[in-house]
Amino acid sequence: MSHLDPYGGTEPRGWDRPERPPALPWPERDVEPWTRQARPDLYAGPQARPGRYDEPDVDPGDDRYDPGYDRRPGHPTGARGPARRLPDDDMPTSQLPPVRDDDLPTAQFAVVGVDEAATEPQRPSGRRQRGRRRAGADRPATQQPAPSRAGRNLPAAIAVGVGLGAAILVPLFFYPPAFLAVVAAAIGVGSWEMARAVRRSGAHPPLVPLIAGGVLMIGLAWYAGPDALSLGLLVTVLGTMIWRLGDGPAGFQRDLTAATLIAVYVPFLGGFAALLAATPDDGHLRVLATLVAVVLSDTGGYAAGVSFGKHPMAPSISPKKSWEGFAGSVCAAAVGSAVLIWLFFDVPPWWGALFGVAVSGAAVLGDLAESMIKRDLGVKDMSNLLPGHGGLMDRLDSILFAVPTAYLLLAVLVPVAG
Fold first, then answer.
1. pLDDT digits over 92-123, tens only?
2. Which residue stretches of 40-153 are H helix?
3. Are 188 and 211 in contact (CB under 8 A)?
4. Is the peptide bond before 27 cis (omega within 30 degrees of 0)?
5. Can you give the pTM of this predicted structure?
6. Which residues of 3-36 are buried (b: 16+ CB within 10 A; e: fewer)?
7. Which residues 6+ apart lie within 8 Å of 168 measured at CB?
8. Three-class SS string for 143-164?
9. Taking all residues of the chain, what is their mean pLDDT, rounded to a whole number?
10. 359 near 128, Cβ under 8 Å?
11. In the predicted model, is pLDDT for residue 5 greater than 80?
């Protein structure tokens, strides 16, 4: 006798174990799995036979009970077969009265007359726009103004542009210190918009020293000239550095770089407008000639781009700008500046045309520079303060690059050519 199996109890192993009948393969070839002989002790009694549905112990030949599967008469387990349809009279719901259209709860409501030939309107996808009413049978849909080809609301843009021009020119000609206040306020708002926009990149430049330093630079340029403007830029950068030390070393280099960019881009370049206005005797005319050249450049570029624009100028930066629009900007600014410079400063028209070409090129470069910054930050507009324009920086982008160019050219052309 062999040793006892430590894992199988006292049953002998090997040749001492009695032979067992071999297990039949499953499934059997000639018998389906669901028709195998069931054990009598497993399914005996009144309990339900397991299957897809639990069925009571009834006569296998009773077809009225079958809910969809037939029993094979004579089989000990009552195997299921193909489904049979029961007569309609034997259905459980055959005793319920049919429901007619007159019995419905909404039968007493009158039907609204509609055109049967019209197709059913499709429900608009997404959320409704703000301030837009949903159209009904007695109320048409609210008509929204369609944007122009330039991508903005042209009437609102014209109205805001006229208002900004009046806010600049009226104090410029009637009370110059008020013009200084207007420039300082514009620089403060522009610095706030830039600081708000660069936060999308993770930078947090200190806003208080930027705005205070910007106002300081405008005042220094007005009262002390270009050297004081450069000194004001240095003081502003140092002030932001010292202010930022209180927040710890985390992200110090990133925040200081963003603050320096804002200080150079907005208040330093904008300080040249104060330098132009502070020129004795004809400062207001220099500012007016510069603004008119920028406006003509923008208007000529818009008209030419909408009418003839086919070749993109910088598709990766500003897809709507075209070379045809740039040509329109240069031509409009050159013609207008030739007339204005000749009338204001008694300078030959070709010098005025050169002034217009230079100012228009600087204005377009400023617009592209701001578009590159916005595309890098992932914003469409700096803010939504001005309807039809976006933010104030979206209007100052061309002027900020144009005023240093105009200041340098007029400082050379007017004394020499005049």
1. 565 666 656 555 555 555 555 444 444 444 55
2. 40-43
3. yes
4. yes
5. 0.63
6. eeeeeeeeeeeeeeeeeeeeeeeeeeeeeeeeee
7. 179, 182, 287, 291
8. CCCCCCCCCCCHHHHHHHHHHH
9. 76
10. no
11. no
Secondary structure of 125-149 in HEC code, one letter for each residue: CCCCCCCCCCCCCCCCCCCCCCCCC
Task: Write the CA distances from 60 to 38, 49, 64, 74, integer angstroms.
Answer: 16, 12, 10, 8
Domain residue ranges in the chain: 173-278, 281-418
Determine the Cα angle at 114 with ends 112 and 120, to 5°: 115
Q: Which of 326, 337, 343, 348 is nearest to 416 (CA)?
A: 348
And the tokens for 382? 């700096």
| pLDDT per residue as tens digits for the range 260-300 | 999 999 999 999 999 999 998 889 999 999 999 999 999 99
What b/e sequence results for 284-301 when a residue is b if at least 16 CB atoms lie within 10 Å of its CB, and e otherwise?
bbbbbbbbbbbbbbbbbb
CB atoms within 10 A of CB 88: 8
Find the largest Cα–Cα distance for the chain. Answer: 132
The encoded tokens of residue 333 equal 């600014």
In angstroms, the first-to-last Cα distance of the chain is 132
